[in-house]
Design goal:
By secondary structure, this protein is of the alpha+beta class. The chain has a domain of 70 residues. Helix content is 42%, strand content 18%. The chain is elongated and about 75 Å long. The N and C termini lie far apart (91 Å). Pfam families: DUF4907. This is DUF4907 domain-containing protein. InterPro entries: DUF4907 (IPR032593).
Length: 110
């Protein structure tokens, strides 16, 4: 009578490797993703906003977009609402342009 111990040893190694791979994959997928950061800043005539990624400014908006006049946001909250809209669009892989209708929906004072 011959006892074959090779198969159980082989399958136990594969199970350990698969479990290790699943553990590493789970840890990697739960890693913190870099997020876009918004900040408001004071201008000569009001407020503006900037959006940065990995501590590099990618958008700096000192005037209200989609408006014919070159005027800043009247309040810090208006600038922040618009910045949040742009970040939302960027996270959805959409163009970060803002239309006048979107500003009206956000109740931004034009």
């Amino acid at each position: 009578m011959t006892i074959n111990t090779l198969k159980p040893f082989f399958w136990s190694k594969i199970r350990k490797n698969v479990l290790l791979f699943l553990l590493l994959f789970t840890i990697a997928s739960c890693a913190k993703k870099e997020v876009l950061k918004t900040e408001t800043f004071k201008t000569n005539s009001g407020w503006g906003y900037s959006i940065s990624y990995q501590d590099k400014i990618i958008i700096r908006q000192s005037i209200i977009p989609a408006v014919n006049e070159n005027k800043s946001f009247s309040t810090q909250e208006d600038a922040l609402k618009t910045a949040r809209l742009v970040v939302k669009k960027l996270n959805q892989n959409l163009s970060p342009t803002v239309t006048e209708n979107e500003l009206i929906l956000l109740k931004i004072k034009l």
